[in-house]
Design a protein that fits this description.
The chain is mainly alpha-helical and 164 residues long. The protein has seven helices and two strands; from the N terminus they run H-H-H-H-H-H-E-E-H.
Length: 164
């Protein structure tokens, strides 16, 4: 198997492992309910993971692998933005934290998609709450690191010199 396919498979595995960890351990075992920004982060991981899995399975030529890498990079960059926004909300002083709004299901059912996304990205009080830490970092801190590492690897797939 070519190195780019292995790298894409590894990236897909990391994306899916992040979501499984969030759903099975953080949500299922620890009982932490995801805020709207956490849900968007999961969507970004699943989207990037799916594209990377397709890249690994398809085995396209160099140009095709670069297309896959470019497509996978988009949700990873979006994830960096989401995690950054989430960290910013968590860093606000308590008096500046936005009020808790309706839950994600209500927002998606009640508003057109673009307006719903705008409301979700604005964040709410639940997004500013820090429910879990590991080595001093909250969940969005770790997701930011993971998104950045995956984006760097995907950028390598996109821009690497061809030697095959």
């Amino acid at each position: 198997m070519r190195r780019d396919r292995v790298a894409a498979a590894l990236g897909a595995a990391v994306c899916f492992a992040a979501v499984v960890y969030a759903v099975v351990w953080l949500q299922g075992r620890l009982g932490l309910e995801p805020c709207p920004l956490c849900v968007l982060s999961r969507v970004a991981f699943v989207t990037a993971g799916t594209v990377l899995l397709l890249a690994a399975l398809h085995g396209a030529g160099v140009a095709g692998q670069r297309v896959y890498a470019g497509l996978a990079l988009l949700p990873l960059l979006a994830g960096i933005g989401i995690a950054g926004r989430h960290l910013w909300l968590q860093g606000l002083p308590p008096e500046r934290v936005p009020a808790c709004g309706p839950d994600l299901a209500y927002i998606l059912e009640s508003f057109p998609l673009m307006q719903a996304l705008e409301l979700i990205l604005r964040g709410s009080g639940s997004c500013a709450e820090i429910q879990w830490r590991f080595l001093g970092l909250s969940i969005p801190g770790w997701t930011l690191i993971l998104f950045a590492a995956l984006a760097a690897g995907t950028l390598w797939l996109l821009l690497r010199p061809v030697r095959d």
